[in-house]
Amino acid sequence: MSKEEMFLMKPKVDFCFKELMEDAEIRRGFISALLDVEIQLAAFPLWPERSVFYLAKMYTGAIQKGQSYDMLPKCIHVGILDFVLFEEDEEFYSCFHFWEDTRRRMYMDKLEIHILELPKLEGYECTRTELLKWGSFLRAEKKEEFEMAAEGSSYIERAYERLTEISADDSKRLEYEAREKAIRDHTYLMNYNLQKGLEEGRKEGREQGIKALVKFCREYACTREETCSRLIQNFSISLEEAEEYLEKYWSAEV
After folding, report:
1. Residue in 112, 35, 124 with CA at minimum distance from that of residue 75
2. Does residue 56 carry a pLDDT above 80?
3. Phi-psi category of residue 177: left, alpha or beta, with phi > 0 → left and psi -120 to 50 → alpha
4. Global pTM exceeds 0.85
5. Strand order in 37-40's β-sheet?
6. Cβ atoms 148, 136 nearer than 8 A
7. I need a surface site. Which of 50, 57, 88, 155 has the fewest CB within 10 A?
8. Any residues with CB less than 8 A from the CB of 236 and at least 6 apart, and which?
């Protein structure tokens, strides 16, 4: 087979991941290993705040006016991260609940947050668990890596088959490559203009630098959460200070 025929999409690119999850069998197998999912490729320092925000929206949105609280369903948020969130831990998978700090008594089991940190899979053997197989599949890029992850798992074998099918589909490949390019271009422009804005801001003073960063983030359609994260990271300020600056400049003509 030629190099062109061996093209395989990367499952961790959101376009490819969504295409795979359209298959009911693949979706069932993946959900049995994980659950309600969001993929995040770029590092996001405020990921805990973001995940709780969306989990809370999911939970409160499940009940209608006049309904009893017992109608609230269990809600689970799963983040598949292509960056390390917990530097101090070796484990690649974490599951969080609401616990009492001292006695470790669970307050309720209707809210869960699951985190899968793909970079930490480097030192693990692929054959150990079904979850580890899925993680290895998602971060794979070469044919041999996909085949190794699929060994002994009918669900991942089906995912690999489907990956091969959509990778061979010219129209889907064009969509995938356009999405990959958009991600690369967006990341490059964000980083370039951010540094440029920060350099200009430093010349004009801290306040002007913060103002310039907020303006930049608005122009590039960043969310308030992403902008808040960048303010904290680049100006070493607290979450409360960052939110105050957002309140001051987000809706203003900057």
Report:
1. 112
2. yes
3. alpha
4. no
5. 37-40, 75-81, 106-117, 93-99
6. yes
7. 88
8. none
